[in-house]
Amino acid sequence: MKKFILLIPVIICTCLQAQKFEGLALTPPMGWNSWNTFHCDISEQLVKDMVDAFIKDGYKEAGYEYINIDDCWMAMERDSLGNLVPHPEKFPNGIKAVADYAHSKGLKLGIYGCAGDRTCGGFPGNRGHEYQDALTYASWGVDYLKYDWCNTGGLNATGAYTTMRDALFAAKRPVVFSLCEWGNNQPWEWGKDVGHLWRISGDIDVCFDCEINHGTWSSWGVMRIVYMRDGIRGYSGPDHWNDFDMMEVGNGMSVNEDRSHFTLWCMFASPLIMGHDLRKASKETIDILTNKEVIAINQDSLGIQAFKYSDKDSLEIWVKPLAGGDWAVCFLNRKNRPYKFEFNWSEHHFVDSIFNMDANFTRDNYKIRDLWLKKDAGSTGKVLKAELQGHDVLLLRLSKE
Ligand code: GLA
Fold first, then answer.
1. In angstroms, rounded to a whole number, what is the distance separating the alpha carbons of residues 197 and 71?
2. Which atom number of ligand 1 is nearest to the Cα of residue 202?
3. Which of 177, 305, 299, 178 is nearest to 237 (CA)?
4. What CA–CA distance (Å, rounded) separates 109 from 142?
5. What tens digit of pLDDT does each residue of 18-43 get?
6. Which terminus of the chain, N or C, has fewer Cβ atoms within 10 Å?
7. Whose CA is nearest to atom 1 of ligand 1?
8. Rounded distance, CA 304 to CA 326, Å?
């Protein structure tokens, strides 16, 4: 009894202590965001259409959950009490109406804020209003907050993001907190206690391997983001993910490039936030984004980010340890012309020295599943012979025999 009485104050203190909401992203968050396709051209109807497409085209069934509204959802100024106001023409019934709609279909709603005075699009930022805004989000039923880093002159990143974390916690509605400060202040070093995911790069663009210069900043193709940071995979894991940015699948790259882009995001255990117009998606786009066996690589419970095993000629080999001793292996043709290769498993030994896992093909035999063809493909006892189209991948799941 005495022990019990002593424990009560300890429990109360722990509960009151500011923290992130634990356990909301034990696997990488999956959803859709308005920015990559629509930029500021968003509305209540658009968001509702996305919710409907989620159900109709099988995204929800495949595991996607969040419908995220990005920048430009607000009126240009706060009201006289300092509250954020939804843009009266774009969201005439407010954000709660779209959140209610998403919730009524079993989905969740995300919104966008910014640590600075103004968002990147020039709308009111959260600086100085964090606690007030967190209460507003909670009253609307918001489940996810992407928090940007424009117009933050003089602010310390760790401090600014921690303030918003504490504000969300104080508002008591569990919210996935997505840090979007582009990797400028090494969020992987401090983000684990602050949020559930952090961007590691500037903005993605619709190209496989390019930099697009906008004067004061650049946006980046898929492979540029893949190579933007070295040595940070050890920081990523359940409830605290390296975020490779929202996807550009379905936005104009070739089908091979889209397949590779999606495969790599799955290999990296990156959040899978789609960025295309769901109403106009081709069958190929839907098939890529809803391939459950590929998604299972991303959603694997160990949450380990892949590492590059080798890189020779045109061919990169990425490997990812999975729960239960399985491995995912991705062969990527980096060049834009077909490439034929052989891979003699028995000469290879994958060693993940950060997470202490290995696959030794001399010691063990693994059966192979081709995840894009959705077919069993023999075992590692035999030499693999394959041909890849330009910018395409072969994705295999290995399971010990
Ligand atoms: C920044 C972010 C983007 C997007 C825009 C909105 O550039 O990195 O993802 O949210 O702001 O203005």
1. 18
2. 8
3. 305
4. 5
5. 899 999 999 999 999 999 999 999 99
6. N
7. 120
8. 12
For the CA of 119, the closest atom of ligand 1 is 12
Q: Which residues of the chain have pLDDT under 70?
A: 1-16
Ligand 1 binding pocket includes 248 (Cβ within 6 Å): no
pLDDT score recorded for residue 12: 47
pTM above 0.90, yes or no: yes
Q: Are 271 and 296 a contacting pair, CB within 8 Å?
A: no
Number of neighbours of residue 93 by Cβ within 10 angstroms: 11
Q: How distant is the alpha carbon of residue 120 from its chain centre?
A: 20
CA of 204 to the centre of ligand 1 (A): 10
User: Is 193 an annotated catalytic residue?
Assistant: no
Q: Does 203 participate in catalysis according to the annotation?
A: yes
Res 17: pLDDT: 75
Report helix, strand and coil shares of the chain as percent, to nearest 5.
30, 25, 45
Neighbours of 76 (CB within 10 A): 10
Please write the tens of the pLDDT for every residue from 95-121.
999 999 999 999 999 999 999 999 999
- Please identify, by atom number, the ligand 1 atom nearest to the C-alpha of residue 146: 10
Q: What is the pLDDT of residue 329?
A: 99
366 Cβ neighbours under 8 A, 6+ residues apart? 327, 345, 359, 379, 380, 398, 399, 400, 401
Q: Is the CB of 235 under 6 A from ligand 1?
A: no
Q: How far apart, in whole angstroms, are the C-alpha atoms of residue 149 and residue 285?
A: 31
Taking the C-alpha atoms of residue 335 and residue 391, their distance in angstroms, rounded to an integer, is 6
- Residue 62 contacts residue 287 (beta carbons within 8 Å): no
Q: Is the distance from the beta carbon of residue 148 to the nearest atom of ligand 1 less than 6 Å?
A: yes
Nearest Cα residue to atom 3 of ligand 1: 203
Q: Fill in the DSSP letter of residue 124.
A: B
**Which residues make beta-bridge pairs with 86?**
74
What integer pLDDT is reported at residue 162 of this predicted model?
98
Rg over alpha carbons for the chain, rounded to the nearest Å, is: 22
DSSP type of residue 325: G
